[in-house]
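Changelog-adjacent note: as of this version, every example in the card shows the full chain rather than a window. The one below runs 159 residues end to end.
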Amino acid sequence: MDIQWVRQIEHLLHSGQRDGASSQVNEAAAAAPEDRYVLLSRSLVSSYGYHHDQSIAVAAAVLEAARAASDKVAEAKALCTQANALRRLGRREEALVAATAALEAARAAGDNLSQGDALQSQADALRMLGRYEESLGASTAALEVARSAGSKAGEGNAL
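Full-length structure tokens:
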């Protein structure tokens, strides 16, 4: 498993195919239950199933594994997942901290798609905190990154 596989799972989730994503993640988990990309995908599936506490816990395990492997892309994705779940639980300040850390990891990795995701997570947290001007700035930056990366999904999220 790699980050591209995680992005495929995320695409299935975005397009409403939670059962298909869940099935693929379960198959992968049977073969490699401790793989950080499998864990990351499990966290995403949990979040889309509104099991946000579980999503946060699994993302924390992924974060630890990603940091141990110096995998900044997986680190950024795990932090974004945490930020989104925290925001959905109303833990907005914590969500902003996680989103900001995700952006730092994504920039360190030089991964445009992860940077766009992190910027959008940051924008969402800022909006929920009532910091609308800052939220608009982060969304605008996410849109620019998505366009430069050719990510239509990222553009849609930013708009």
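Structural remarks: The chain is about 85% helix and 0% strand.
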